[in-house]
Amino acid sequence: MAIAVTSLTQRPSWKALSEHYQKVKDLHLRTLFAEDNQRGKRFALDAAGIYFDYSKNRLTDETIRLLLDLANSSGLRERIDAMFRGDKINVTEQRAVLHVALRAPKDQSIVVDGENVVPAVHAVLDKMANFSNRVRSGAWTGYTGKRIRSIVNIGIGGSDLGPYMAYDALKHYSDRDLTCRFVSNIDGTDFVEATHDLDPAETLFVISSKTFTTLETLTNARSARDWCVKALGSEDAVAKHFVAVSTNEKEVAKFGIDTANMFEFWDWVGGRYSYDSAIGLSLMIAIGPEQFHEMLAGFHEIDEHFRTAPFERNLPVLLGLIGIWYNNFFGAETVAILPYDQYLGRLPSYLQQLDMESNGKHVDLEGNTVNYQTGPIIWGQPGTNGQHAFYQLIHQGTKLIPADFIGFNHSLNPIGRHHDLLMANFFAQTEALAFGKTSQEVAADGVPAFQVPHRTFEGNHPTNTILFERLTPNTLGKIIALYEHKVFVQGTIWNINSFDQWGVELGKVLANRIIPELESAEAPKLSHDSSTNTLIQRYRAARGK
Ligand code: F6P
């Protein structure tokens, strides 16, 4: 663990990769496949219910060997053990990083500060299950005695993206008599549009905030309380229509939610790693406790795979290392996440926070500025929609964009030929990206000469194919754990703290300074730069101040 990683680029394993890159950077996937007719099978892994085909990447056996050396020389094994042991690897906040404890079976023991945290995790899961069942059965009613029909989760970042993504992903398994909505933006439109057709007497608000101090969430929660109290005519309604999910009992009580209706989690769960904690309460109400536990089992299966599988057959390790190969040696700046499943429409947004908030860091664990690239830009959209929007640039633009294609053998909505057509597009895209179409092939099709360059596909665009049987709660848990640990692998190699997020603080502080300047009747001091001062003045003038 105590490897001086400011010297990452000076390490023999890094230098070996740099030299190797010079040798293989121009190798074409056409050649690699032509030279090895088993490549599609050799560079693939069937483990933990996931088929991972990484053959359509610009790498050789030697690349993998060198990347594995890099992982070993980065102390990856020790870091994995340290995380699972509950060591305080989030050094800047002096916290353990134990999202893996959220899906640990009851009989496992994970000790933080002398206490086994697994019983507390299961106690909260039981409390969530009990509450979810009461809402789902109608035993829990609103203030007027009406059954709860709508759940509105109010949260932002990790307290929104996870439950929202997972609710969409698992809609097929949800109780269709319940409406679930998610409000995150401080823009009042979000709250108004989410609630405009809801009956306050039938609506339950789940206020989700790790800190319970987040401006957006508390502002939306206050508006929700006003909306509810105004409609139901009494402050007493709050107890029946509001529950909280938080680590901060004091602030929950201060807000006016009975702490008996609070679902706890802990400072060793990062916000972006939290949707399998109580932050998933709205999801559990929607899909029921059994399905939620199925999802946790999927997470746990990948945790165990990650903890125990040798690195050369370890899915998150390989996914992470391949990412490093493009990010740090090919200079790729982004990674596209392309799920071929409509239910996974919010997966790219979710992974954006997971990856970019975790690994968007410019100093290493010792506080030294790094002299290498860290986290990539994550983006994407479900296929096939993306094909008709941005794939053009991936195929024929000037940038190298590695992409993860995620798909399923079986559809949850098997109508007509849809699924075969969907998956034909999936396979066709990874084939086209890898092999392209040469100018000779284009000309041989009889294409007029002036069009040939425009219709030529260079190919050699790398993709990972990640295939599952079908989208289930269990599968979703696997997908998320896979990416959580991929982020961990990369953060370890870059020697950065993937578990803090100081980069979001400055904007929050400055916004708090500007709020009174927009709201006060008196002219503000105008203590900002000339651009910000002018913007504030113009805004105030437009608002009649
Ligand atoms: O602003 C970033 C952040 O701190 C995220 O890391 C977190 O997921 C989000 O805000 C919400 O925080 P909280 O759950 O404390 O309201």
From TrEMBL:
Q: Which GO terms describe its cellular component?
A: cytosol
Annotated active site:
357, 388, 508
Q: Tell me the keywords, alphabetical order.
A: Cytoplasm, Gluconeogenesis, Glycolysis, Isomerase
Reaction catalysed by this chain? alpha-D-glucose 6-phosphate = beta-D-fructose 6-phosphate
Its localization reads: Cytoplasm
Indicate the secretion signal residues.
none
What is a single Pfam family found in this protein's UniProt entry? PGI
User: What molecular function terms (GO) are annotated for this protein?
Assistant: carbohydrate derivative binding; glucose-6-phosphate isomerase activity; monosaccharide binding
* Pathway annotation from the record: Carbohydrate degradation; glycolysis; D-glyceraldehyde 3-phosphate and glycerone phosphate from D-glucose: step 2/4; Carbohydrate biosynthesis; gluconeogenesis
Q: Which GO terms describe its biological process?
A: gluconeogenesis; glucose 6-phosphate metabolic process; glycolytic process
At the top of the EC hierarchy, this enzyme's class is: isomerase
Has the keyword Chaperone been applied to this entry?
no
Reported EC number(s) for this entry are 5.3.1.9
- InterPro entries under this entry? G6P_Isomerase, G6P_Isomerase_C, Phosphoglucose_isomerase_CS, SIS_dom_sf, SIS_PGI_1, SIS_PGI_2
Q: Which family does it belong to?
A: Belongs to the GPI family.
Stated role: Catalyzes the reversible isomerization of glucose-6-phosphate to fructose-6-phosphate.
Spell out the protein name for this chain. Glucose-6-phosphate isomerase
Species name: Reticulibacter mediterranei
State the taxonomy lineage. Answer: Bacteria, Bacillati, Chloroflexota, Ktedonobacteria, Ktedonobacterales
What gene name does this entry carry? Answer: pgi
